[in-house]
């Protein structure tokens, strides 16, 4: 069961109150900037984690301005579409509402997930959106993020290495994700959406002596949450 820290109280709460009950995830941003996109990214991760656990989710975006820019920027980062809040009414059968908001941002009463800002005002021109997504996943959401050249360079190297490895592992017979590894991944993302720990598990798997087929399936499984398109290079020349 996914549990997250409610920013209002500092206490962990269940993200799902009723089995298979609809959970509404509502992202609150004032306008378009990279910090707003980080809020949407955390909301996207929350939606993905809930769906992996079998929970139906309704994802909404509340913003006062620059909606088109927000939607376009989110799509570039691989964030799945959110409905605009002003265009919809209350959800039928909702059992839980979770608000994802920037630190210090306003949101209606309810469970609140706070996201620290991005301290880098502008991205380097031509930055790969998938690299930006990974760079934003590395730091805990409660910690301000930076997207300077060093951090983006490290993310670029990691993403390329993982995609090449996944493509190579895919050439070997498939093996199931080991129960211990699957448990570590699930424990991480169900424990307050601890994505940095998910990344640490993948680094351990990369360096382990697990069969290549098991490493492939592990990365494909984790990518359901991460959304990094780690299987993109399947079938490419060795």
UniProtKB/TrEMBL annotation:
Originating species: Streptomyces doebereineriae
Protein name per its UniProtKB record: Cysteinyl-tRNA synthetase
Top-level taxonomic group: Bacteria
